[in-house]
Specification:
Blueprint: H1 44-61, E1 68-73, H2 75-87, E2 93-97, H3 100-112, E3 118-122, E4 139-143, E5 145-146, E6 151-152, E7 167-170, E8 187-191, E9 202-207, H4 209-217, E10 231-232, E11 235-236, H5 251-266, H6 269-289, E12 294-296, E13 308-313, H7 316-319, H8 323-339, E14 356-359, H9 366-390
Parallel strand pairs: 2-3, 2-4, 4-7, 7-8
Antiparallel strand pairs: 1-9, 5-6, 8-9, 10-11, 12-13, 13-14
Helix pairs in contact: 1-5, 5-6, 6-9, 8-9
Length: 391
């Protein structure tokens, strides 16, 4: 153990949730003063704000010409399911899963769509499947960054440029914080509530020309709900990618997305966003390396997330407990931090191994992470001492 002394300094912003994530530094409700409220989202004013989100997204991320960017319903989940239900079917599928959300897409493909020629490539929390074994003659479905496992793919080198199938990538906790090789990705989905620190309920869907060609050539054998339909008379519905959303968006959330993208551009665009997230991971890494009771769930630094950082407790006292008791200990640590206003929402994901999860995306300040770590030491020491006293 390090120190059990109660720290004197708290993070200026103790919000470390992995979604919805911390708002950008300096955010206040005044950022929403230009929201188009009480007007139709199809009015000139409303559509202009929606279009601004799309154009800002293209500019900040460096989306290639010919790719389409749209605002869609139901957050990242809606965007992924639109892609799966609309695009899959013509080819066999390789689907990768190494955490809970990837496993959710397996359920969609295998149990809901009931596709027959599917290979599920799984790995335990903290690991990746064998990327070299993926067959790109097939359609490939994967998350770029495992939000609940703290594991990311190292880069796009494992994806061939001359692939035959489509690559469908859930990048919600990666985009704006990691380099995305757009030429290797046919579908990319995310939500505003992650690295941008925006609000929930809206998803972003980015399609390559190859994905558009699939949409226009393939008619699924299953019914498509209205909110999944991206074509009209066999052609892509371009209005969806020009600010005409399928259903009614929240213009408050749209305005918040405009503000987040403005901030990203102001601080230096994508390179600055990536650096902030990497600096945040570095701040936690410095603490982990000198702390004997904790380690990263992802042991390999090459695949360690720089956004949703997942930590395991390695103290023999903890590992000797039952899984139920381990989960209770992790929850107690999180509860103590919350009670002290020192750190909110740091408990690990419910389906992940018991531990801690700390968001390190670009809207978090490294100084707040440095202020958090003594509180983590203190809380763990308190929980451990309390258990010893009770025994």
């Amino acid at each position: 153990m390090t120190t059990a002394a109660k720290p004197n300094t708290r993070p200026a912003n103790p919000n470390f949730s992995s979604g919805p994530c911390a708002k950008r530094p300096g955010w206040s409700a005044d950022a929403l003063k230009n929201a188009v409220l009480g007007r139709s989202h199809r009015s000139k004013l409303g559509k202009a704000r929606l279009q601004k989100v799309i154009e800002q997204t293209k500019a900040v991320l460096g989306i290639p010409a010919g790719y389409r960017v749209g605002i869609v319903p139901a957050s990242d989940t809606g965007a992924v399911e639109m892609a799966l239900w609309s695009l899959l079917g013509p080819k066999p599928v390789d689907i990768l899963a190494w955490e809970s959300f990837g496993s959710g897409w397996v359920t969609d493909v295998v149990k809901q769509l009931k596709l027959k020629d599917v290979r599920v490539m799984e790995a335990d929390y903290g690991q990746l499947p064998d990327l070299k074994a993926v067959d790109f003659k097939k359609d490939v479905v994967f998350v770029w960054n495992g939000t609940t496992s703290g594991v990311k793919v190292p880069n796009g080198d494992w994806i061939p440029a001359d692939r035959e199938g489509l690559t469908i990538c859930d990048a919600t906790s990666a985009v704006f914080a990691m380099d995305m090789p757009w030429d290797k990705l046919d579908v990319v989905t995310y939500s505003w509530q992650k690295v941008l620190g925006g609000e929930g309920a809206h998803g972003m869907l980015i399609l390559s020309p190859r994905a558009v060609a699939r949409l226009e050539s393939h008619k699924p054998s299953w019914p498509l709900p209205k909110i999944f339909r991206m074509t009209k008379d066999g052609k892509i519905d371009d209005s969806i990618f020009e600010g005409a959303t399928i259903n009614t968006p929240s213009m408050l959330c749209v305005e918040d997305a405009v503000d987040s993208l403005d901030w990203a551009a102001k601080i230096g665009g994508l390179p600055a966003m990536i650096k902030r997230s990497q600096d945040n991971l570095a701040a936690l890494t410095a603490w982990v390396e000198k702390t004997d009771w904790v380690d990263f769930l992802a042991s390999d630094p090459k695949i360690r997330s720089n956004t949703s950082v997942c930590l395991k407790i390695v103290d023999p006292w903890f590992t000797g407990q039952s899984e139920k008791d381990q989960a209770a200990i992790a929850k107690n640590i999180a509860a103590m931090l919350e009670k002290e206003n020192a750190g909110f929402d740091v408990d690990g994901y419910r389906d992940a191994p018991p531990g801690l999860r700390i968001w390190c995306g670009a809207t978090v300040e490294a100084s707040d992470l440095k202020a958090l770590t003594p509180w983590l030491d203190w809380a763990y020491a308190q929980v451990k001492a309390g258990a010893a006293k009770a025994a």
